[in-house]
Amino acid sequence: MLKKDLRIHFLEKRKSAPQSALQQVGFQLSQHAKNLPIWDLSVYHIFLQSVKKNEIDTTAIIDLLREENKEIVVPKISADFHLQHFHLLKDTVLENNPWGIPEPVNGIPVPPLKIDVVFVPLLAFDRKGHRVGYGKGYYDRFLSECRKDCLKVGLSLFEAVEEISDTGKQDIPMNYCLTPERIYSF
Ligand SMILES: Nc1nc2c(c(=O)[nH]1)N(C=O)[C@@H](CNc1ccc(C(=O)N[C@@H](CCC(=O)O)C(=O)O)cc1)CN2
Ligand SMILES: Nc1ncnc2c1ncn2[C@@H]1O[C@H](COP(=O)(O)OP(=O)(O)OP(=O)(O)O)[C@@H](O)[C@H]1O
């Protein structure tokens, strides 16, 4: 299937998920995350839920990262479809952007090369670990700035589709995807 069709289909499907389910899924994914071989590292990047867009609630994963004493980094939209990245500290002030995504108001940027693990927001993914996001290329660009050995863990409400047919050179595949049902390794 084509990315644009998958995007439409799964955005629509996500609209009907109640907030309680998004919280429940977040908890299930955090339980799966405990079983991934990713815990010997230091710097973990995670997105903050947009309630408005019915995204997965990532609070349980953030709590897990805090328990494990990991450095936590979150994204902020910058110019030209680029992201900047800031530490999430206890006193970090967050403000919702126009898409309902909480973002740090300020901070010292963390270079992508310092990041060891990225939890990636997904609309859909396939059996090879390719992904579909909102289609603005924010994560495509960001992941291309990370180290080759940076681990990429997709978080998805829905199970894998058979194949995304229009993947290209700039698409960086995931190492793992977590869904409510299972862990996919690629
Ligand atoms: N929670 C969360 N944070 C994230 C992402 C995400 O998917 N989830 N991102 C993943 O990429 C980046 C932000 N990506 C975005 C991608 C698309 C649009 C977007 O649809 N913009 C529309 C305007 C829609 C409107 O006006 O309401 C547009 O530009 O046309 C916004 C943010 C970084 N932070
Ligand atoms: N590394 C890159 N540098 C510049 N442009 C890029 C890069 N990667 C992807 N793009 C562009 O970004 C746009 C969106 O790509 P794509 O359709 O793969 O979206 P997506 O992966 O669903 O989106 P996202 O990265 O926002 O989650 C495309 O027009 C693509 O050409």
Automatic annotation (TrEMBL):
Transmembrane segments: none annotated. ATP binds at K3, K4, D5, L6, R7, R131, V132, G133, Y134, G135, K136, G137, Y138, Y139. Substrate binds at E55. It catalyses: (6S)-5-formyl-5,6,7,8-tetrahydrofolate + ATP = (6R)-5,10-methenyltetrahydrofolate + ADP + phosphate. It comes from the Bacteria. Its EC number is 6.3.3.2. This is 5-formyltetrahydrofolate cyclo-ligase.
